[in-house]
Predict the 3D structure of the following.
Amino acid sequence: MTTQPNNLDQWFHHYADRASGLAASEVRALFAVASRPEVVSLAGGMPYVSALPQDLITESIDRVMRDRGPAALQYGSGQGLPALREQILEVMALEGIRASVDDVVVTTGSQHALELVTKLFINPEDVVIAEGPSYVTAMVVFKSFQAEITHVEMDDFGLVPDSLRAHIASVRTAGKTIKFLYTVPTFSNPAGVTLSWQRRLEVLEICRENGILVLEDNPYGLLYFDGPPPHAMRSVEEDGVIYLGTFSKTLAPGFRVGWVLAPHAIREKLILANEAAILSPSSFTQSIISEYMSVADWKGQIDTFRGVYRERRDAMLDALDDYLPDLQWTVPNGGFYIWVTLPDNLDSKSMLPRAVKELVAYTPGTAFFADGNGRNNMRLSFCYPTPDFIREGIRRLSTVINGEIELLNTFSQTAPLTIAPPAPSMINPPANLS
Amino acid sequence: MTTQPNNLDQWFHHYADRASGLAASEVRALFAVASRPEVVSLAGGMPYVSALPQDLITESIDRVMRDRGPAALQYGSGQGLPALREQILEVMALEGIRASVDDVVVTTGSQHALELVTKLFINPEDVVIAEGPSYVTAMVVFKSFQAEITHVEMDDFGLVPDSLRAHIASVRTAGKTIKFLYTVPTFSNPAGVTLSWQRRLEVLEICRENGILVLEDNPYGLLYFDGPPPHAMRSVEEDGVIYLGTFSKTLAPGFRVGWVLAPHAIREKLILANEAAILSPSSFTQSIISEYMSVADWKGQIDTFRGVYRERRDAMLDALDDYLPDLQWTVPNGGFYIWVTLPDNLDSKSMLPRAVKELVAYTPGTAFFADGNGRNNMRLSFCYPTPDFIREGIRRLSTVINGEIELLNTFSQTAPLTIAPPAPSMINPPANLS
């Protein structure tokens, strides 16, 4: 049991098995460089908080401190502030959800809800079904609890029900246990697509038939551009859906306040898991949000955000049309992201250092797959930079991509690289899932 | 794989094995009743935040919003705000700790540091050694990752090194793996005792020899009454100690800001685990604390807290002397808690409903043992009620305890219940650990 004191990490043999799932992202170091101000970052998912009414937030804080300072500075309930949970019902009602305030649990961002749900359900080798591509840090959580992730195919209308059926059958044939389907059905991160209403019903039916929980993650649903998306899956199915929401995208991520709405028995266990992990979510930031929602026109503020992000999405689509007309990309009706498909021979990860040298950053597609797919994809975020910077970023990106294509053509002179005809709103399904 | 829709919890068979460790405390429902204002609660661990300079906190918040609002409202680094980590070094220096700012990770209260460390190290059936009695919600975390907890004996000078040696030997003889020693060496929760300097060195030496990590949890160290306690264990041993600190007791728990100081390689993994769990700790509350520490006399404020809690401790000790002179209790030099030993035949848990009926609450001793011990112990908190309420609470408690003793004597008339001679500063070691 003694350790070698001269090892780089003398506690190396002490870690739990699950710790091997916690590896630093390959592009992490590069993103540190990419955060320099001269780089146009199309990589992150930071909301544009400068569009918030900061005076109103400051006023709300002052009122909380004046009227109920000691309560806001104290420990709270593990389930979260009752007044805020009531207001969360109003937020969810906008997406067709009717629920009891008793079934809402406030979490430290919806990220922590992902962690708590995973801790509660996943044994090593249990299977989580997720869209391909899927939200990267959800997959980090699943892997940190030793889940196996299998990706279902997506197209312009979200995850493909037939692919879901096929995956369920093949996972079960392999003798494995499926614990839940993880989905971002509306304005998906990273694909930007939305699951159609018909498919929502079909996916719910498949999961009901197969006794599979649905983990519906909906950070972007209220940030639509051209008209509201279909109602949440939770609006039609109460017992089989765990629903995650957050104030990080419609208000501010610095507060770290999200929530989970879960069937009764699961909710009870989530409160216990929340208390074990953090005792109680921050009374202080919950009180501020609750006060802000009482006095501010918060729906109007979300509408302001819609306008900001709509303009940025349009700027990105225009710039892609102008500078990279031969590529394929998705056209989102909301959210933060566009998913771009490069020519087959291009590798977005190996191209990234050159992009950063040209002062533009993006997220390589492989980050959003657990199985190595996405090599010729990238996620572009339009949420944070202003329209001018977005345009300039895409211009820089086009010089990088065109340079890569030229380089590849030089090295394969007999057969010049061909680019598929543009199909701007199609996700390129990974070969092994089609 | 289909579920029975009429079960109380149709997902009952879907939970992970570890979920069985997440059970609601038996006294939880009672504590809900005990939070009524007419009940004197000697049960909780809530700091007296009303002693804080609220105007100064409000000013700090306003300055943060004015000077760097968008940064405070945004996502931050998974490791925490660099400026705050520098200030955390100043806090730890007061207890003899020298460290690099690179090795500090900010967490959502030190509770979340406990969760992250446990997630990182504990496989099912791994052993955690803890003092008996030990902090209840640390044990909840260990159990939620399926650790086995074994308790070492304590006395007035903290955990007993010979008992630690004996436990290490017997656990290893049983073929089990010890992952760490969890200890609250200073003003222990719940025992109120402090590990002597000589024993700190001895415990560190035992753990070094046996390749066992020390998880030093120190929420109360700066809240001393009669003179500073020995320096932190981390002050003499860098590679073998993971140190946990928090602003919850010296400032306010509503911010949910604590930290972990860990050896280099472990720290790197803790950042990854923190990012998976919550993306980043709250930029907003970190910024407020950092601003407050820049402008306020925070050391003077901690001294104010010392005065408040010293007066309350004295009130509780005086009341115990006056109303319950035949019991045994510890005499803490800091922190929040006194540990009381009742006559052998009394059961503090079964007595609690009667206490709440008499409008006083405490925490039964069994909550602080993983093995059913502590039946005739209780933890009394003096942190929150004012001295007058503390005195009234102890008076009410004395009527409950004396009523119990009378009742027991009535039913065992041949041999009246005897009370051990008072030894006010001795912990009563559970029989199986002596």
